[in-house]
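// run 5 | inverse folding | seed 20
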């Protein structure tokens, strides 16, 4: 085992109606997203209701996530009114007495985490490692398949639980870049750039680590909604998580990590900006083909604005996928078909064909409401250019777990709000900055893909910067700060975009 494999040490009358309306709207969005994915994958398009915006090979929606922000929107009076009630506004004394009597003997968890992907498992591990009573809820039975390339870059390795053994399927030392099948060049590195995993094994391993730290895990458990006031909530320090079978579990703090079409995200008020459609096939190949791809991945800058494709080798199977902006599923499907054919892989029968939607938050989208936080895809946290989400899920999940511990200890609404805002500030200061630079890179890539490709394959410092980012020794944001020429190029792009927006208004 190499050292890379082991990570080192509303108000009362209207609140229910408003929340129901939000839930209905979110459910409608989920079904619409499922239908688009189903249309291009040939699946049935059935929403599984766990709110992740992911459709698997059978057309069943999974759970994975998207949206973040720097706290609570003080400019939104209605949201503030809802949050004030969530944190402990005026209550009917008779209602509170009845609720307390009915729930007096009920178990109250310190932290409840909804969703057992990388964000949820990371959050549960962090909170349990702090000695708190943690309940981790997951709709599916584990292990379960997830549509994902499974690339584990440096920031992901750095955010893993201490001692976690990565179930690597391959170690990547070379990257082949192409421009819609042309201008192909392979760049190599003496040291490993990143590793590849199957999400089923990786996620199950993270959940096992959370269990080892003391978290209680319940699989096959779907969440219907969360409530921060009403008859199900015994007191102002408690949140009720209502399960699809009608059972209610109680916690001092709740973390939503239930995917890009998150039900918890809908409760918080997460708003999405960028939505992309990813399509992927798992292709078993003979040993001779597998050997040709061993240790090497392919990244192909695609024919659609902002699109790209990838080939990730995992033993005797190649994970082949493409991603582009949501809106033209037929064109994205054609890109995938042409990509597979161009690679000479059309003759091999895929073992799985799947699709999913990735959603990226608006800059001001909330990360909390009352005693509820969101993380990972549920918070719209991912890198906008590459749509890499695992490292964002692991890092935001760990932060959410740490700050949820403090929220669970908060004696009143003021302190709970303070801790929730601290979580938002921590996310914005780190992941938010990276997302901002990634969004600018996406804009550059959409308008000048050939220039970006030429720089990567022909300019040594650009390749070395790419390698450093994948290894985790730097970030896009750090590079912009370190290299003035990169900062100047992005600032020039910002000015150009601003001028174009002005012309559009005129």
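// decoded
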């Amino acid at each position: 085992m190499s050292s890379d494999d082991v990570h080192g040490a509303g108000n009362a009358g209207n609140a229910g109606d408003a929340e129901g309306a939000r839930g209905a709207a979110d459910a409608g969005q989920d079904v619409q997203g499922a239908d688009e994915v189903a249309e291009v994958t040939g699946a049935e398009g059935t929403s599984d209701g766990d709110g992740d915006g992911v459709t698997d090979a059978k057309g069943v929606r999974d759970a994975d996530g998207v949206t973040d922000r720097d706290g609570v929107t003080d400019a939104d009076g209605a949201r503030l009114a809802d949050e004030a009630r969530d944190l402990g506004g005026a209550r009917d004394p008779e209602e509170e007495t009845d609720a307390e009597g009915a729930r007096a003997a009920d178990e109250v968890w310190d932290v409840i985490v909804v969703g057992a992907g990388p964000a949820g498992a990371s959050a549960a591990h962090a909170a349990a490692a702090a000695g708190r009573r943690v309940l981790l809820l997951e709709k599916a039975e584990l292990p379960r398949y997830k549509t994902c390339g499974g690339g584990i870059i440096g920031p992901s390795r750095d955010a893993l639980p201490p001692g976690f053994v990565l179930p690597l399927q391959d170690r990547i030392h070379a990257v082949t870049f192409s421009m819609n099948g042309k201008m192909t060049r392979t760049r190599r590195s003496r040291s490993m750039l990143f590793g590849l995993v199957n999400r089923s094994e990786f996620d199950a391993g993270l959940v096992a680590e959370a269990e080892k730290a003391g978290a209680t895990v319940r699989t096959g458990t779907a969440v219907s909604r969360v409530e921060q006031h009403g008859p199900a909530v015994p007191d102002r320090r408690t949140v009720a998580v209502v399960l699809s079978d009608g059972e209610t579990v109680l916690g001092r703090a709740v973390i939503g990590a239930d995917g890009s079409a998150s039900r918890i995200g809908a409760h918080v008020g997460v708003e999405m900006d960028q939505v992309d459609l990813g399509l992927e096939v798992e292709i078993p190949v003979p040993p001779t083909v597998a050997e040709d791809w061993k240790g090497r991945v392919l990244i192909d800058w695609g024919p659609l604005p902002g699109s790209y494709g990838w080939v990730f080798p995992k033993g005797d199977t190649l994970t082949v996928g493409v991603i582009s902006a949501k809106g033209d599923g037929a064109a994205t499907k054609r890109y995938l078909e042409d990509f597979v054919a161009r690679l000479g892989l059309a003759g091999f029968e895929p073992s799985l064909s799947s699709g999913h939607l990735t959603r990226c938050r608006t800059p001001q989208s909330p990360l909390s409401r009352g005693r509820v936080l969101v993380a990972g895809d549920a918070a719209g946290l991912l890198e906008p250019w590459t749509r890499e989400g695992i490292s964002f899920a692991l890092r935001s999940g760990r932060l959410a777990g740490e700050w949820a511990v403090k929220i669970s200890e908060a004696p009143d609404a003021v302190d709970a709000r303070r801790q929730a805002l601290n979580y938002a500030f921590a996310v914005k200061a780190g992941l938010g900055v990276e997302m901002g630079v990634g969004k600018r890179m996406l804009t550059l890539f959409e308008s000048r893909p050939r220039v970006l490709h030429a720089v990567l394959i022909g300019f040594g410092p650009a390749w070395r910067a790419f390698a450093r980012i994948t290894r985790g020794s730097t970030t896009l944001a750090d590079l912009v700060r370190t290299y003035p020429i990169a900062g100047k190029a992005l600032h020039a792009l910002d000015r150009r975009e601003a001028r174009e927006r002005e012309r559009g208004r005129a």
